[in-house]
Amino acid sequence: MTKASAPSRALVLFSGGQDSSVCLAWALSRHDHVETVGFDYGQRHAVELQQRQVILEAFRQQFPDQAVRLGPDHLLDLRGFGAVGQTAMTEDRAFEITEKGLPNTFVPGRNLVFLTYAAALADRRQLNALVGGMCETDFSGYPDCRRDSLDALQTALNLGMAQDFVVETPLMWLTKAETWGLSLKLGGQALVDLIIEHSHTCYRGERGELHDWGYGCEDCPACDLRAKGYAEWTAAGRPELVP
After folding, report:
1. 1 inside domain
2. d(CA 22, CA 28)
């Protein structure tokens, strides 16, 4: 990981999953000061909130040159918002496609709410970049992952807060295989291993068995996407992806 020359301060939306862990490494390679924020919205895979601290400590231990730029972590309580959605992300129900053609893991407006809260925090912390792992290429059918949605929100946040925030989405046009390649480029095999062992993506919160690609139930949408990406990356010879 290399340090960028331009001084800047960033806030990473950090769930404890694969994508947000790669985004954290990406932010540390570019910004002079990086803070993290997580959201407790009553998610059934709340184990990701526990893994956040494990990953942050692993970053500090394994990447000390970058960790000197790692500032405070923040955890915001949004359980009231999560209860409104009544989705498979917050309730014990089967994963399926709704009548709108969207997966029932879609929490309506989640990324919009997350970024709004993150911007309010960033305003007080004097952080000018908001970094998120939203992705159009391999996204799971979530309309608030689209760059158009985030561009509109960025404009609204800056108008509404008299700010000059930049919403950065380094994974927006990457496949999951390419995300693995980016992690290798950013932090070598040490970062790949950290993500495999410590990050959490599985919607069921399963951490009983460690697979080649990490822990998970193997049959939820998040596990399917993560395992497929890892298999494709491995089959391609595990190429690095230039960030």
Report:
1. no
2. 10
